[in-house]
Every structure is written in C-alpha cells, then in structure tokens.
Amino acid sequence: MLRACQTAMREMEDHITAAFNRSERHTQGGYYPGVLETSPARAATSTPGLTACSLCAGETLGETDTMPGGQLARLCRLDAAGVARLTLSECLDECERGDVVVARPSGAGREAAGRPVWFERLAGDEPTARLCQWLQDGGPGVEDVPEELVPLIIDRAGSNDM
User: Fold this and answer.
1) 154, 98 in Cβ contact below 8 A?
2) Which pTM does this prediction carry?
3) At what angle do helices 125-136 and 70-80 cross, to 10 degrees?
4) Is the pLDDT of residue 69 over 80?
5) What is the SS3 string spanning the chain?
6) Distance (Å) of CA 145 to CA 26, 73, 81, 88, 140
7) Does the CA dihedral 162-77-32-82 come out positive or negative?
C-alpha cells in the first residue's frame, strides 16, 4: 500500500503544484484547505481512519479524472498529510457501487459512540475536499456528515460495520 501511495503521490506532484497556482482555495495548509495544520499530538490521538477499495478506486470518474493517480492519489494525499489513516482493501464487497470509502471514527469519535460511515462514488476534488474538512473537524462521532456527502452514504443498517 505504501508503495502505491508513494507512486501516486509522485505522479500527482506537478498536478498539485499547478492546482496551487490556479486555485482560489489554496491556503498555506496545502491542496485542501488546512490539511497540513494537523498537529502531531492530535494526529496520534484523534486521527480518523479511511478504508478504500483499491480495486474500485477511480471507477466513478474513470478516464475523465484529470488528477494523475486519480482518486487513490487524493486519498493517499489525505493520509500523507495526517488527515486520516488510510487502509486499502482489495474488496469491500460493494463492487457495484464504485469508489467505496469508509470513514472510521477517531478515538474521540469512538468515545462518542461514532460508527464507521460508508460512502459510494466518493470521487473528485470537491467531494474529497469536503471529506477532508469533515475528517479534520473530527469525522464520525464528532461531527455530523456534511450535507454534500449525505447522498453518497451507503445504508448499512443491519450489517456489521468495519
């Protein structure tokens, strides 16, 4: 997984630099506003997790995705910035849904009875930026799912969460 993330990160470096220069959303924090503002102490105790299907990552946007490395590169960027701990799975058994991502609660989120939140078709700059902000704000159990991401939630009622 680490090699895949490192390769994806290298491939998208030029794209990110260009995005910094073009984007009005650019802040000192990085590609997604505030991404690099996570302190090491906070990361060690309250970093949410992400689980993504490595086989379906990039399915939603396919060849129309202009980001080198696609959605997997975006998720790796969140991991590299300390926003979330990324775990890649070969299959989350939701193959028909494409770009399945599970946001797992941090320690603080678990203390508040937070449960994993499953998303389908979570792909592209805007949804990933919104996911990033939500995770930085605390994620599952700490903050409500942002309105923009609610339509992407997979209803797992009655199933065992991760």
Assistant:
1) no
2) 0.71
3) 20
4) yes
5) CHHHHHHHHHHHHHHHHHHHHHCCCCECCECCCCHHHCCHHHHHHHCCEEEEECCCCCCCCHHHCCCCCHHHHHHHHHHHCCCCEEEEECCCCCHHHCCCEEEECCHHHHHCCCCCEEECCCCCHHHHHHHHHHHHCCCCCCCCCCCCCHHHECCCCCCCCC
6) 23, 23, 21, 22, 7
7) positive
Compute the distance between CA of residue 68 and CA of residue 70 in angstroms, rounded to an integer. 5
Q: Is the pLDDT of residue 148 over 80?
A: yes
pLDDT tens for residues 18-38? 444 433 333 334 444 444 444
Measured between alpha carbons, how far is 125 from 107 in angstroms, rounded to an integer? 27
CA 47 centroid distance within chain? 12
Question: In which residue are the tokens 């998303």 written?
Answer: 119
Which among 88, 85, 77, 87 has a CA at the least distance from the CA of 36?
77
- Whole-number Å distance between alpha carbons of 14 and 17: 5
**Residues 145, 150, 153, CA angle at the centre, nearest 5°?**
100
Phi, psi of 51 (to 5 degrees): -120, 130
